[in-house]
Design a protein that fits this description.
alpha+beta, Phosphorylase Kinase, domain 1, Transferase(Phosphotransferase), domain 1, 2 domains, 5-stranded antiparallel β-sheet, two-stranded antiparallel sheet, 12 helices, 29% helix, non-specific serine/threonine protein kinase, protein serine/threonine kinase activity, ATP-binding, EC 2.7.11.1, serine/threonine-protein kinase
Amino acid sequence: MNVDRDHIAAALPGYTLGAELGRGGSGVVLAARDEADQRVAVKIMSIADEERPLFGVTGVPRVLAATDPDAEAEARLLAGLDHPHLVKVSHHVRHGDVALIVMELLDGGSLAQRAVAGLSVEAACAIGLGTAAALGHAHSRGVIHRDVKPANILHTSAGVPKLTDFGIAHADVPRAGGRTPVRASSGTPRYMAPEQFTLGELGPATDLYGLGVVLYELLARRPVFQVRPSTKQGWANHHVAVTPRPLTGIPGPVAQVVEWALAKDPDRRPADAREFALALAQAMAGTRGTDWLTRARTPTFLDDDVRAAASRFPARTAERPRQASTPPGDDHGLEPVLDRPDTVDDDVAVDSDTAPDGDTAPERAVAADSDGDALTDSEHRPPPGHPRRPRRSWRSAPWRRS
């Protein structure tokens, strides 16, 4: 995508455009100063392809026709997201064949960059709680992110983690003639939930799976699977059918919460972001001490019940038998995760119902485990103290009713 700076400047009178900060599948981001001389970021998204109404950082559609009331309703819903752990957006502009989004400038680096040096268990889990809080806010308004990954978690200069880039987010808003079709296979293969590959129904559990993969990598400092696939189809086979390696080297209750989010069946994952956050907060308090959030040195804005759980020793902490802990610095002979740019199939968001090599959806090509036996979800049970609740249908939540 080429950037015509004169064109952009005409769309944002009074702004001074600066250096390019980055680019990806959903657009290019430039540094800028607004009319008040405040530093901001400007995301530029092409809207030339009228057949693909994807979403930008604010959740505002890249294609937003003035005559399309349904698109406007969806844009208003997504633009209404406002949370301390979500990137703050000031406004959006459509100018000719591009859409521009003006947002806060996050100059504290991405989680992908910070992970290269390694994070403490406390810091990783604090970021996990902040991200879960952001997801819970989005989910309560009907928005599924679909692309939770380290590159999409940026930090302020003060170290506050913020979820960004709703470039392929889905907001399920009732429309005349039916609901919006979901392009379920959109996402970054390395962090996609099984149902994104199999064209299943998406919901909050979809994003929790992605967050589970992120936390697994941060805590284990290695990939989730023994074999690192090189194609989208390979990732599909693994996420759909291959059991992740046990998460060792960290407290068992913490590992159990992360593994809970990685259940293949979304109905076996936490019911929502709050349930996941409470379980993680309690597991950390019970194993790392009630002051672990302070030691994390990561600013977080959490609901009162989650913060209380993080600072209160549980009445009972049960731990199921686990493998021996991994010695510090032992990477199992594997290359460190997040220590280099990934391939296009590995860490770049895609928006296609077919794999790059032409393979079709993985439900017709699902792998078995190394012994050829079918895999189950028996290991992905709720942690002690979090009994499985009857799951309320994502599509019947109160805010989704007409």
